[in-house]
Amino acid sequence: MNETYPFKLKPLPYSYNAMEPYIDEKTMMIHHKGHLGTYVNNLNKVLEKYPIYHNCTLTDLLNNLELLPNEIRKEVRNNGGGIFNHNLYFEGLKNVGEDNIPIGKLKSKIEEQFISFENFYNLFSKVAKELFGSGFVWLTLNKYNNLEIVATKNQDTVLELGLCPIILIDLWEHAYYLKYNNKKDEYIQNYKNIIDWSKAEERYLKCINKN
Ligand code: MN3
Predict the structure, then answer these.
(1) Buried b / exposed e across 166-176, counting CB within 10 Å, b at 16+?
(2) Span from the CA of 172 to the centroid of ligand 1 (angstroms)
(3) Can you say whether residue 157 is alpha, beta or left, with left for phi > 0 and alpha for psi between -120 and 50 degrees?
(4) For residue 25, what are the contacts with CB-CB under 8 A and spacing of at least 6?
(5) Which pLDDT does position 65 carry in this prediction?
(6) Which end of the chain has less Cβ packing within 10 Å, N or C?
(7) Does the model's pTM come out above 0.85?
(8) CA nearest to 79, candidates 61, 53, 55, 91
(9) Strand partners, 151
(10) Maximum C-alpha span of the chain
(11) pLDDT band with cut points at 50, 70 and 90 for residue 137
């Protein structure tokens, strides 16, 4: 996330109906244009009067929240986090279908730590189901090069926890409610069909190199 102020709404790398039937076109459109678009506009509004931060990347801002003035810290955390999380989420989706499984070094690492992909996904789903209220569940790499499944609230990011993001599921109701209503479990189950494991492998290798 190397962009700086003014931040822009990045177009999706696929059409709004690309995740059908797992995520419907209307949800994708509202989620991207509406929700992500609002985070982008709000962050720009907040930073408008603070030219000192206009050269900071999104990651710079989110990694240094404690250095920001009190009056804008919360809004940068919420809106900046909203942009960071949603760009990762949207760019990590690919409609593969039911045979979708991890590849490469990440596949080996998942099997080393979680025995099997199936076992990993059961654990990931469990954490996702148990997240109360709005937030995200992530597969991340910690500084010891081990995988960690973690949950975050609201638009908090895993950067604050010192973790490197690989995949994430958006568990705000806006991500699934139009199609799934209260059936959050089904959304979590279907998310398995639209994880872009090539992208995840790419992120995993970058995470290792950072450590
Ligand atoms: Mn969302």
Answers:
(1) bbbbbbbeebb
(2) 6
(3) beta
(4) 16, 17
(5) 95
(6) C
(7) yes
(8) 61
(9) 137
(10) 51
(11) very high
DSSP code of residue 176: T
The Å distance, Cα 14 to ligand 1 centre, comes to: 17
Distance from the alpha carbon of residue 16 to the mean position of ligand 1, in angstroms: 15
- Cα(175) to centroid of ligand 1, in Å? 5
* Cα of 168 from ligand 1 centre, angstroms: 11
Report pLDDT digits (tens) over 83-97: 999 999 999 999 999
Judge whether 54 and 156 are in contact, CB under 8 Å.
no
Distance 36 CA to ligand 1 centre (A): 7
Contacts of 186 (CB under 8 A, 6+ apart): 180
Tell me the pLDDT band of 34, cut-offs 50, 70 and 90: very high
- Distance from the alpha carbon of residue 201 to the mean position of ligand 1, in angstroms: 23
